[in-house]
Design a protein that fits this description.
This protein has 266 residues and is of the alpha/beta class. It contains 13 helices and 5 strands.
Length: 266
């Protein structure tokens, strides 16, 4: 059996796609960073999934041939993947010939989502004095001080992620297409790599993995996430237009032009 490796820059829909594919193919889903900590004894194995009954791969579908060993997710570059996750890749018997999927998203939307994630959720920011400000003021404070610099850093890193993986001829899935037609994108993966497509399980995957449901599961696992944080992390298409100045848009597009042309955003 083969693994399906999903790669992409953070905040591009990697996890959502991983859950959809995992459910459809009845295969366990592994975030390689989380699995590394589990194998190192730093985390409980049950913490790997939002819903073990849906993603553990332990239930049996008699009408579905087992074709996928595991669905894997990583944000690493091709050169750093074996260095960062070598032991994990050996654990799941990953081969470089296994199916490879690159998920992309409009990079300016990625920058906005990454900004909200970084300044609301990352551990090193939790102790900052600004955490005690009312959420709208906290948001505005970091937006004014940090957004432009962070956005330009994302532009450079996103460009590198896309161009480096593109050289390995992955199947491209765009986040925007995934939101509009998730079942069609699952079918594209099945057809591209010679797997059987099950319309019934694709529909079930979409129903279970709808973003509102996943947010509810996230809330149950992370009750400390504030409502204001969820509002800012909705992942809407085109949300970048509210935060990007014209000057920043021009600089950002200059940095990402090569990669956006490759994946069809220009």
């Amino acid at each position: 059996m083969k693994n399906v490796l999903i790669v992409g820059y953070p905040r591009s829909g990697n996890t959502y796609l991983g859950y959809l594919v995992s459910y459809h193919f009845n295969a366990p889903y592994y975030d390689l960073y989380d699995l590394s900590e589990v194998l190192a004894g730093k985390r409980d194995p049950e913490s790997l999934t939002l819903a073990p009954e849906a993603f553990s791969g332990t239930f049996s579908r008699l009408d579905q041939k087992k074709e996928v060993r595991a669905v894997l997710k990583s944000h690493e570059l091709p050169t750093t993947l074996p260095v960062k996750h070598g032991g994990v890749l050996d654990y799941v018997a990953y081969q470089s010939s296994d199916p490879l999927v690159l998920i992309t998203r409009e990079p300016k939307d990625v920058a906005v989502s990454f900004f909200y994630y970084r300044y609301f959720r990352q551990a090193f920011r939790k102790g900052h004095w600004s955490r005690y400000l009312p959420p709208p003021i906290y948001h505005r404070y970091h937006l004014l001080l940090h957004f432009e610099r962070l956005a330009l850093r994302v532009a450079k890193e996103w460009r590198e992620m896309v161009t480096k993986w593109w050289d390995l001829h992955p199947l491209l899935i765009r986040y925007e297409d995934l939101l509009k037609q998730p079942e069609s994108q699952i079918q594209r993966i099945a057809n591209e790599f010679g797997f059987q497509f099950h319309a019934r399980y694709a529909a079930e995957a979409v129903q279970f993995c709808q973003l509102s449901h996943l947010r509810g599961l996230e809330k149950a696992r992370n009750p400390g996430i504030r409502e204001q944080e969820r509002k800012y992390r909705e992942g809407k298409i085109g949300g970048w237009k509210k935060l990007f100045s014209r000057r920043l848009q021009v600089r950002f597009d200059q940095l990402t032009r090569e990669a956006t042309q490759l994946v069809g955003y220009q």
